[in-house]
């Protein structure tokens, strides 16, 4: 991966991580989020997922592999190559991202609140940290 991409992505992810932690602390303290703050939670989860998709595709490109246009396929390819050791359920994560973007009127808010409360977004931050810490190809 290009060093500029890695640096920009690290900065972006640090900001998202801080904001998600603040949302977690607020939710634990208050037990609810105002509509405005809830929308911030949705947006941060969307941005974090999109960052991970970008990192997955950049990782494949760095390996000399054509990155699939479908995000689910990109993560499946990474996992098959041993380049994703997380327990992230990418099809569900990408499905949530799609719901946040395209089907937001029908989204069950409890899903977003549970992710924030239980800090399940940390899996995505861990994946991103793992891939950005080792951006070099591993060709066998």
From TrEMBL:
SUPFAM superfamilies: Nucleotidyltransferase substrate binding subunit/domain
Family: Belongs to the HepT RNase toxin family.
Keyword Hydrolase found: yes
This protein's name: Uncharacterized conserved protein YutE, UPF0331/DUF86 family
A single MF term (Gene Ontology): RNA nuclease activity
Keywords: Hydrolase, Nuclease, Toxin-antitoxin system
Gene3D superfamilies: bsu32300-like (1.20.120.580)
Domain of life from the UniProt record: Bacteria
GO CC annotation: toxin-antitoxin complex
